[in-house]
Structures
1.
Amino acid sequence: MIRRGTALLSLAALLGAALTALPGGRAAADEVEQVRNGGFDTTADSWWTSNVTAGLSGGRLCADVPGGTVNRWDSAVGQDAITLVKGSTYRFSFAASGVPEGHAVRAIVGLGVTPYDTWYEAAPVLGEPGDAYSYTFTSPVDSTQGQVAFQVGGSADPWRFCLDDVSLLGGVPPEVYEPDTGPRVRVNQVAYLPAGPKNATLVTDATAKLPWRLRDAAGATVAHGWSVPRGLDVSSGQNVHSIDFGAYRGRGTGFTLVADGETSRPFDIGTAAYEQLRLDAVKYYYPQRSGIAIRDDLRPGYGRAAGHVGAAPNQGDTDVPCQPGVCDYRLDVSGGWYDAGDHGKYVVNGGIATWELLSTYERSLVARTGSPDKLGDGTLALPESGNGVPDILDEARWELDFLLKMQVPDGQPLAGMAHHKVHDEQWTGLPLLPGDDPQKRELHAPTTTATLNLAATAAQAARLYRPYDKAFAAKALTAARKAWAAALAHPGVYADPDDGVGGGTYDDGNATDEFYWAAAELYLTTGEKQFSDHVLDSPVHTADIFVPYGFDWSRTAAAGRLDLALVPNRLPGRDKVRGSVVRGADTYLATLTAQPYGMPYAPDGNRYDWGSTHQVLNNAVVIATAYDLTGASKYRDGAVQSMDYVLGRNALNISYVTGYGEVNSHHQHSRWYAHQLDPNLPDPPAGTLAGGANSSIQDPYAQSRLQGCVGQFCYIDDIQSWSTNENAVNWNAALTRMASFVADQAQP
């Protein structure tokens, strides 16, 4: 989310002319122009500039933009006093060019006074003079203090920006966004296991069964059968059929499925893709690291300077003060992972992400199909590779060290608790490399939930790192015990839901589940009665926690329940714990069977949640754990089939994993994976999971395209859509867990 203000200079001062507001003219009976003097024929009246040298040239406004700026808003052109009516639809259009070509401009409609809310934004990459751009959006507010602005800073080199025919026309019909969903046969575009389930979904108006054919890369038919009509799919609003070609056990690449005159996108039948995805899903984390230079030899195309180490203009995380009024000390909280597409670091989201990476490794030690060597030392091309420690533990430790640094020091009020988060004082824009972030960094107040995330993950780390680093394991357990005691002493200290400037809030007003999770991890590591008593006495212990949305950073009880079920221990009544996981898996299997797109996810009211793709995967984790507990093939097949939705078998016919599938998400919201805005920056690395459909479409870009969307269609692959298309460390942790599980099922 971007919310940023700019210091503005008057264009009158630069051009030596008095600016006069001209009344907006009517373009049509119901259409009203809100921009004054958008044609620049004889004057620049009504327009201001900031940090550019501007003037009229050939009936255009041209601005010489200085080089060496960091942020888009460091240089800008705009107009204030724009009137907007809530619920009215506007067409925002302009002609623009840049010399040299290839510069991106951030064109916004927003609030012209603090806090400078953005209501709509576009980010075209400029080309030839006269290139025209047009966008339609619905205003979310009533305002007479709106602003149209073109932010052109952030370039190392100077360039020339020219603008003409600027219009904000109100009263136009809403633009109907129709995504290109490709062929109506929807498949897992990556791979099916030879000995696993193979299902597809056909979008069709037909009510009777239809023939299908499976073709190999040469076009030969290798299997055939009939579809099963499923009627209306509420998750997409489509009429669909199901296709099951699981009886085919051949291997190969370039298969396609043909039905109803349509040919699917290609896919493999084999195991190699999942072995690679197992690695790529974890390799995602190294370029997310804060406080270390990313080596291009380890991640070609992703090398960059270290972020937040105090090298100008970056203020760094080595000596960070608290927000005013929170504390009077400073901490070194360097390291860790950037949480998502911004530069914030959050204990509650980092905690659940670390747990799932550690649990991926722990599962490999205790499950019947586990393969600990697959993520062992040397598998992930990390700076630590070759140190005798499994690479996945090396990666998780980068975050664990940060989590430990977030603990309130001894002698301070709330000693032993954990600060909730650290991030910039104000929101920054896109693109912005971590090392170029000029914002002041601040520690935010400690919370009970953050403290228990620290207790849980540090306790888990204590048992998993003990064979490799006894001193670190002991340090982690000491921190976990201290955090547990601090949380018991302060059980109701919660994040401020309004503390969302410069970073996300991650507010959660109930720590019952975090207490349960932390007690479970401490018990599994120590075997002590005080922790088993808390587990057994918790109302969460016998509650039905396997809900439609699955587990997440704010719903952590499942983390404790799954580990109690899978990790060997002597908890009284453990058979009931294991049975509860199996019952939860049965619920998700029933959901999967009922969904024509075959995913274990059916949110209440068909309201897809933020990060729905990882919720699908976390529900699949429950099913996979039931297989690890029982060995029943229905759970193995259900967990494997759950990957289909994420990898292309969905209403949009898109793989939500970058680099996987013929059509895949690759414009995720990120300040440094921003190729869509800056050709010199990369797309996200292969194996990055997009958040996916989100019915609430909170960001202006999604709101301009997806109003009235149904379930699965509430997604757009654009860098500006932070509510549907961000990446995040906890989302990729779910992908890591499931990719590793599926790869482990590769035996014939």
2.
Amino acid sequence: MTEVNTPPRTGGWTRFVTARPRLSLLVALVITALAVLAGSGVADRLGAGGWEDPAAESTRATKALEREFPGSQPNLLLLVDAGDAPVDDPAVAAEAKRLTQRLASERGITGVGSYWQSGAPALRAEDGHEALIAARITGDEKTAAETLERIAPHYRGAHGPVEVTVGGPVAVRHEMQTIIQEDLTRAELIALPVTLVLLVMVFGSAVAALLPLGIGIVAILGTNAILRGLTELTDVSVFAINLTTALGLGLAVDYALFIVRRFREELSTGAEPLAAIGTTLRTAGRTVLFSALTVAVSLAAMLVFPQYFLRSFAYAGIAVVLLAAAAALILLPAALMLLGHRVNALDLRRVFRRGHRPEPAGEEGRAWARTATLVMRRAPFFALGTTAVLVLLGLPFLGVRFGTADDRQLPSTSESHVVQQHIREGFPGSPDGGLEVLAQGRATEAQYGAYKERIAGLPDVQRVDGPLVKGDSAYFTVLPKGEAVDDPAQRLVGELRDVRAPFDTEVTGTAAVLVDSKDAIGERLPLAAVFITIVTLLLVFLLTGSVLIPIQAVVLNALSLTAMFGAVVWVFQDGHLSGLLGFTSPGSIETTLPVLMFCVAFGLSMDYGVFLLSRIKEEYDHTGDHDQAVRHGLARTGGLITAAAVILAVVMVAIGTSRVTNTKMLGLGIALAVLMDAMIVRSLLVPAVMRLTGRATWWAPRPLRRFHERFGLSEGEPEPAKESEEARDKVGASHA
């Protein structure tokens, strides 16, 4: 520790960030203002899809059908309700035909068809009082949304004897995008003031509490500008802006908490501001850098998947993590240099103390030190007990069923959800969930007929329509028995692809997209897991120099996520608490959500793990006492990690108030994972396991130890070790 009368020792980075603090903050202000301009309107350019594999058979077939047979892929549905009259009533039929002809004349609309034109039973409700007009809006997602906004008001509502409501995939996506933007604004209005109050409670000082919020706002605005630029190059999901807000605030709070807390500790020992900043950056600053890298690595794993829904979260997550870390390591030291001791100004907690003196700084971690002592004294009990509880909470995930995101993501009162629900419940054979078989290659009528008979003979087929022939291409519509994406429908996809034909065939449709998406994720999941594991092991080794600690970190982090996955299935798949939380359970989990939630939650868990391990490592380097290092690390970081977890959970719960089920699942699930990790894994399981492994925790083979001495980074400036290399080798050998 730097003494008061000793000239402050500052490294090159400290000199760089504190040389001209006012200029640094001014430049940051200008860049942030430019980011506001560059990122404006980003939400309007984001897509609401991205769950399909662009290279899959179903995707190729869908694009070919859109090109050759636009009527086979309707994305706009008008539900015509005749009230008490039958849909075949002359007045109803005349008005419906007029609406059909009017829709066909609209710019950007193709493939218009209706029950009153074709008489198809699938387009007529079983009670005879509702029927459908189907069409396709051409163009990409943005163009289709603009067309929908232009024409929908002219068709929605009463038209003579009928009432029309607007639905279909385009309407679902448009409503989802609109609701997400509205909900995100509400979440920010909830999260920002609550976060500020919590930060004041943690720091006491209103000045110190404002610093993390400033870092978060810079990170969020900068990421929005980056996403806006990426939309010029690739598709980006609208869901990614939720992660930008959550991680921008959450990680900025984490990093700023860690740095400001360490800075204030140094000031309390009598250090001058410049020296305090130098020590803070050498210690907490290095930890923040490692933490940002581990979180970014977890999020980068989503880049191996082809779905742009997952890749979008990698884009947003990596950008916001790196920006939050950069702001914490550049702007925050500049602000602290200007503030100095005034960082403790405006202590709002004084009004609650009623004249009592605050506890000395050294006593604030006593409760956590006592917790660590208790846990380590009964280490086998806490290790086995917490592991058993976490595994038990994760058991519901064994019954997970994967599905697709559909209109049930929306509130039950939304127009497009109402339309799709009417179709599911009132129309025969799920007409919106059929499978299409594209046949390409010259064929005779007899060959088409023989192929159709083979399809109709499959056990899970309810009806086959077609073929509709155009040149050397044709397509068949196959209605499965049961739900559109249940197990028989998914099985039927494989059966259709195995049917012999004298021409090339490709299968698409809702169930086919789901099957291909599951295959794409299953194929690349091992690669993502290996990537996360290897890079995490390497980073934690570089931080600690231990062989065992990185393995412990990966295993315990994964274990901390079990409660999240169990709760996701129990609540969102099985529908428990659906009334309280205000969502409609589709009976399945969207295929990409567990991957997304794992990558985000694992990264955040590593974030807290790095905070704890770095402080334990610093103390162990100074004392060589393993048990004391664990107690000291938990005492110094237990309250900090818990406060950061609670604040991040508040942000995620605010995101979880969304009316879109996937966003609600993401927010509430990660909030649960963060709290379980901070309050159970970091507080109980980690000290228990480290007590059981003892001093062998720090063992590494001599070549790896030399590698770490050369390339590793540790928090603090280690003093000479209290034990020799030979002693460490003996400890490792005795535990091998």
